[in-house]
Amino acid sequence: MAVFVTLIIDGTIGMVLTYALVIALVLSLIMTLLLIKAVKVKPVMASRAISKGDKLECEIWLENKMILPASLIEVEIDASAHFSVDGEKKLIGSVSSRSVNTLNYQLIAKHSGLGHVRIQSVNLTDYLGIFSFKIKIPETDSDLTVPIYPDIPLASVQTNMIKNSSQFLSSDDEEESDETSLTPTGLAGYDHREYVVGDPIKRINWKASSKRDILLVRLDERIKGSGRTFLLDLPYTLDNDLELTVRDNVIEGTLALLNSLLAEGREATVYYKKQNMWISAVIHTTADVYMLQEEMSDFEAEDSSMDLPPKLLSGKSLICLSSAMDYSYMSAENVISHFPDSILITSYAATLPIISQNQWVISDDFDINKV
Fold first, then answer.
1. How far apart are CA 3 and CA 19, in angstroms?
2. Does an H or E element contain 246, and which?
3. Rounded to the nearest 5 degrees, what angle is found at the Cα of 318, between the Cα atoms of 354 and 223?
4. Which of 92, 191, 79 is nearest to 132 (CA)?
5. How many CB atoms lie within 10 A of CB 30?
6. Which residues of 105-123 are buried (b: 16+ CB within 10 A; e: fewer)?
7. Strands (E), 168-284
8. How far, in Å, CA of 236 to CA of 258, rounded?
9. Which residues 6+ apart lie within 8 Å of 173 measured at CB?
10. Residue 191: Cβ-neighbour burial (10 angstroms; 0-12, 13-18, 19+)
11. 61: which strand partners?
């Protein structure tokens, strides 16, 4: 336009316009370059931990320490496959002189584990809207994490595959016959009380109940031999919806199965690998199940090493729940090779081939069926 005015209308006015535009461009660049160091961008999350299905409220703080107002600031956000972004991934805002402004967005938690919220880029546009400059963000602020709790399904999972498998049959299904000491109830061997609704069936002493003509429940010990050993095989997963769905199915199926066993009066020990260390959790009560749920909330598989818990290398049969996929199941094969008599439970979505004679599949509704 300045050139048009110079050549067609008036040369003097055209030159003045040209100088003005050049000066404006230079001033815009200088002020924008100064603002790059003065503008701070910081992501903030409202929650420290959430559950699946919850919305995570997030804010981007834009702070300007200069007397000059900032022009348009474009922030591009990204998140791991644990989340779906509710809205646009690009946020645009501005901030006046020596003040703070916020940009708001929401994420919806789809999968459990350690979710990541990332700021991909922050760009500051000059006042004329011609040039754009990147604003650097500290690494500690560019990638934030939030634990996402897995669900504990209310579904009652059938445990017949554990009780009916020959390698898991134990004396807990047999009544104790040694009655050598007397207890305050007058019954030998154990302390008892009358059965009430909700007591585990396994605690009923049928022999003593037949003598007294009422249902009696043993009090002074847990079911003999009722402990089961579980191994959670959670190999490294890619950051995609399918593999996280498989892992959720296995973790939540484990929690549901443990609750079902507790309802029958059976305890369990669960081994899982976290931060490259094998950890064991003894499940005595439902509170222990909630503790395991919390442990899984910030779970993040780091490698696919083939090592197993040293305490299990004695050859004891176990129940292995694996999130291995149909295209990568070496970890599950490794477990079966060391414990060939074990039960292997995989996810319906993994479509794992048959690698064990005692292989089961857990469905989306947490039904467990033999392959």
1. 11
2. helix 241-263
3. 135
4. 92
5. 11
6. bebbbbbbbbbbbebeebe
7. 192-194, 216-218, 228-233, 268-274, 277-283
8. 24
9. 163
10. middle
11. 42, 102
Those residues whose C-beta lies under 8 Å from the C-beta of residue 171, and which sit 6 or more positions away, are 224, 225
pLDDT in tens, the chain (371 residues): 544 445 455 556 656 677 777 788 888 899 889 999 899 998 888 888 999 999 999 999 999 999 989 989 999 999 999 998 877 789 999 999 999 999 999 999 999 999 999 899 999 999 888 889 999 888 877 888 999 999 999 877 777 666 655 455 444 444 443 433 333 333 344 456 677 776 777 778 787 777 677 887 776 544 444 468 999 999 988 889 999 999 999 999 999 999 988 888 888 999 999 988 899 999 989 999 999 999 999 999 877 677 888 877 665 678 999 999 988 889 899 999 888 888 999 999 998 899 998 999 999 999 888 88
Report the C-alpha gap between 88 and 22 in whole angstroms: 36
Give residue 251's identity as a one-letter amino acid code.
Answer: I
Q: CA-to-CA distance for 19 and 92, rounded, in angstroms?
A: 31
The whole-angstrom separation of Cα 319 and Cα 270 is 9
Contact 73, 67 (CB under 8 A): no
